[in-house]
Amino acid sequence: MNFLQMAQRVRQEAGGIAGSATAPSDVTTQIGQLKKIVDWVNDSWRDLQLKRSDWLWKRKPFTLALTASLNDYTAADAGVTDLGEWDDESMRIYRTAAGVGDESYLSRMEYSVWRDVWDFGVKTPSRPNVVTIKPDLHLGFGSVPNDSFTVTGEYLQATQALAIDTDEPDGLPEEFHMIIVYRALKKYSIDEAAPELYAAYRDDAMRMESHLERKQLPRWRTGGPLA
Description:
Elements: H1 3-14, H2 32-51, E1 59-66, E2 83-95, E3 104-105, E4 107-108, H3 111-118, E5 130-133, E6 139-142, E7 149-157, H4 177-191, H5 195-216
Parallel strand pairs: 4-5
Antiparallel strand pairs: 1-7, 2-3, 2-7, 5-6
């Protein structure tokens, strides 16, 4: 469902809100109670995204080209326009000319340590083996690259706000869009001071969110024997 369809579904399920069953007709010109519906849907989508920091649907891959002697890279350099945060445990590197057969892992390093080790004095360029995330969310490497390298990894996308009728929850599987509707209906029931409705919508939302968590959260893995 897109933004408008979710708002219309909230109106349909709520029943008692003034207007036709297909209202609202858009998400940008509403006033009064229908404007509340639009806002409840948007707020519910935001709340679901922020409920967990490790939703699998928020993970996206990136590829970054490193240039010899350059050691400061932005999200835009990696073609990323919706950066929430980097996953600095997922990054790998290979010499571009050699290809992925040359791939190795990059170890993460806290910025304060990296600054004292790799951003201090003059360093001889070489193959980077560590990565840091700077306070401005730029990426820095240790050492300064001495050649063209390719870095691959993943990032978590920023919290998305719905804006126009056709906007859809980015990454969230279609089968779970009703979670947003049920969360919006919970907000409606609070606005209406209707605890019995709140309980019903809460149960619907919790049931679907439990299924979402099973499918869209990393699975715990147990380690092997110690000896």
